[in-house]
Structure formats: C-alpha cells, structure tokens
Amino acid sequence: MSAVKLHRVVDGPGDGPVVVFGGSLGSDLRMWEPQVAPLVERGFRVVRYDARGHGASPVPPGPYELDDLGADVLALLDELGVERAHHVGLSLGGMTGMWLGIHAPGRIASLVLCCTSAKLGPPSMWVERARTVRAEGTAAVAEAGVQRWLTPGYRERHPDRAGFFRTMIAAVPAEGYAACCGAIERMDLLDLLPKITAPTLVIAGADDPATPPEEHARPIAEGIPGARLEVVPGAAHLGSYERPAEFTRLILDHLERP
Length: 258
Ligand SMILES: O=C(O)CC1=CCC(=O)O1
What we know:
GO terms for molecular function: 3-oxoadipate enol-lactonase activity. Residues 17-244 form the AB hydrolase-1 domain. By secondary structure, the chain is an alpha/beta fold. It has a domain at 8-118 and 189-255: Alpha/Beta hydrolase fold, catalytic domain (Rossmann fold). Helices cover 44% and strands 15% of the residues. The chain has a 7-stranded mixed sheet, with helices on both faces. Strand 6, helix 9 (217-223) and strand 7 form a beta-alpha-beta unit. The relative contact order is 0.17. The chain binds the ligand O=C(O)CC1=CCC(=O)O1. The ligand O=C(O)CC1=CCC(=O)O1 is lined by residues 24-26, 91-92, 145, 148, 184, 210, 237.
C-alpha cells in the first residue's frame, strides 16, 4: 500500500530540531498537548500527527501493516523537508518508532518509546477487538480503552478528562481502528531490536495494564543496544498525559543529552 498524507500540527521554531510525536491506537494528536509548550520553549519544532485511520488522517481500507504506518511517517518527513528527526511514540506510535529505527536509521536522530511493546499478543485479542469495532463501532471499546489509559484514581479526580478520551476513542473511524488492530496483531519486532542504532529511551507506566513494564518495556530496553529504561510511578497506559511533568522531563533530558 502506498503512504497516505498524514494530518499533522506543527508548533515551534522553523529552524528547531524536529521532534515527531506518534500516539496510541484510538487516539489523535491532542493526546500530546501537555508536551507541546515545554518542548517549544526549549526551541524544538514539534510535529504531531494522527496515524492513518485516526483523527483527521485518511482512512484507506485495511489491512494495514506496521510497514504502512512507518512509510506514512517517512512520507511526512519528506513532505516537510526534514532529513532527520527525533521520534517520540506511545504504544502504536512507539511501535512505529521502532519500525523507523530498524528500517530507516538514517532518518531517526533518537527514539523515545513510551508504554509500548515489540510484540503484543495474544493475536486473538486483536482479532476479537477488530471484530467488535467493525460490528459495533469504536464507541463499543471506548470505556475499556479509558480504563487502560488512565489509573482509577486519575479518572475519579478528573472525570472531564476521562470523558474527553472516551469521546476521542469513540470518534476514531471503525475501519481505521480495526485495521490498526490487525497491524498490531501481526507485529513482531523482538528479533529486530538489535538493529536499532538510534539513542533510545524507553519509558513505562508502572500501572500500565496494556503494556506492563516487565513484560514489554524491559525486553525492548534489553533488545536495543544502549537503551535506557525508566518506569514512572502512578501512570497507566497514557502515561504522558497522566504524568506529564515526569514524562516531559524524561523526554527533554533524552533530547538534550550531551
Ligand atoms: O489496548 C489498548 O487500547 C492499548 C494499546 C495497545 C496498542 C496501542 O496503541 O494502544
């Protein structure tokens, strides 16, 4: 399949180092709002995109593969005239980041891999979720999604934000969500991780029920030469939103490391 033109929002100085942000299955680029101002203040050019099938990006008919999601980001960089960028990805965005580090090392200055996995099974879970979404729409998986994304305490303290993300998931086109489930179902990057040469920071949420740190983040950090693992307490799957100060500090430290 050929690359699609991703919807994107660009903030920050035109001549700043480019940091591309890719989000979770079921999200759109607003999930990165807490990171924008702090990075722009430090002089970075922040490029947030909606993955294919999500937000305001095109929704080509499935199946999608991780190759397609990665090729979309390379096309975005080409279109923006960016030769080399930092990539920060959470969950599906992190999977895309690993694909870029493996298949396009010359385009990736560094990687931050948040709350993600190199192999996220069982495949039957993704087949079943795609079936549900195609039959009943994304609203049918929205509440369960929010429960994985945010800790119970945060949802209690911030019912408005839980509602914001429930609405975000329910707005994702069913075919786009389901086709991305298929890409995750068929993904296995574990044996390819040693090919990544980009300086890599892996960040996990200590209370992430979707990609628990020991099961998912640690194998990534152990597989990528020189990668470092940080586990943030009090964070579920959407840790960058629930614990923005901690995630943003770690991201900035990685981007600005000497
Ligand atoms: O299951 C979820 O919704 C969490 C998740 C897995 C991959 C992804 O991008 O989000």
